[in-house]
Write a structure and sequence with these properties.
The structure holds 2 protein chains of 2 kinds.
Chain A: E1 4-7, E2 10-14, E3 19-25, E4 32-37, E5 43-49, E6 55-58, E7 61-66, E8 71-76, E9 85-92, E10 99-101, E11 105-110
Parallel strand pairs in A: 2-11
Antiparallel strand pairs in A: 1-3, 3-8, 4-5, 4-9, 6-7, 7-8, 9-10, 9-11
Chain B: E1 4-7, E2 10-13, E3 19-25, E4 30-38, E5 44-51, E6 57-58, E7 67-73, E8 76-81, E9 90-98, E10 105-107, E11 111-115
Parallel strand pairs in B: 2-11
Antiparallel strand pairs in B: 1-3, 3-8, 4-5, 4-9, 5-6, 7-8, 9-10, 9-11
Classes of the chains: A mainly beta, B mainly beta.
Chain lengths: ~110, ~120
């Protein structure tokens, strides 16, 4: 059974601080995606990671993928309140390209 | 580009009735669409994979006779929840994969179903 686990599940942090969210998965995959979800809304695509060693950055967020360790990270730099949301990673499986989502990390940034 | 719409955005129905949710890819062709369900405070769970012109593939534990999926064209998939019950109340999200693309899925805005 495929497992995609995120750590932590809940995160409360002060503005200006840094933190990393981890996504571990149990199957072989070289494609991983990060999404943001605001309450009552659907998913907003953040990052598409398509190979081992891929690193992408957008604003205060940076994502990386280590396919050998089956690990992806989402690093938050100098958090601001607007980043408060739930973040999901999703592993792309072959051959059907089904996505299996992580457990989610609920982030609250405190002013 | 790569916009996916869902209709309706929310629906409230009585127990025992059937509800149809539409998922459309507006500016691209999608040979494959996916249906997910999300309960409050939980992650998205894949329900089924819908391929244009063929029967949907359901994930383990998802009743295919209860959740009817039709993918009649390259831009439209429908999910019908038959004989809905309160436990079917959830947020249903569809996604579409660009035909010939690398595999990225584009997600719809979701449909919130409440069964009374």
């Amino acid at each position: 059974e495929l497992k995609v686990e995120q750590n932590p599940l809940f995160l409360s942090m002060q503005e200006g601080k840094n933190y990393t969210i981890y996504c571990n998965y149990s199957t072989t995959s070289d494609r991983l995606y990060w999404y943001r979800q605001d309450p009552g809304k659907s998913l907003e695509s953040l990052f598409v990671l398509l190979s081992n060693g891929a690193v992408k950055q957008e604003g205060r967020l940076m994502a990386s993928l280590d396919t050998k360790a089956r690990l992806s990270t989402l690093h938050i730099t100098a958090a601001v309140h607007d980043l408060s949301a739930t973040y999901f990673c999703a592993v792309d499986t072959r051959p059907g390209n089904q996505f299996y989502f992580g457990t989610g990390t609920s982030l609250t940034v405190i002013p | 580009g790569a916009v996916v719409s869902q209709h309706p955005s929310w629906v409230i129905c009585k127990s025992g009735t059937s509800v149809k949710i539409e998922c459309r890819s507006l500016d691209f062709q999608a040979t494959t669409m996916f249906w997910y369900r999300q309960f409050p405070k939980q992650s998205l769970m894949l329900m089924a994979t819908s391929n244009e012109g063929s029967k949907a593939t359901y994930e383990q534990g998802v009743e295919k006779d209860k959740f009817l999926i039709n993918h009649a064209s390259l831009t439209l998939s429908t999910l019908t929840v038959t004989s809905a019950h309160p436990e079917d109340s959830s947020f249903y999200i569809c996604s579409a994969r660009l035909a010939g693309g690398p595999g990225e899925q584009f997600f719809g805005p979701g449909t919130r179903l409440t069964v009374l």
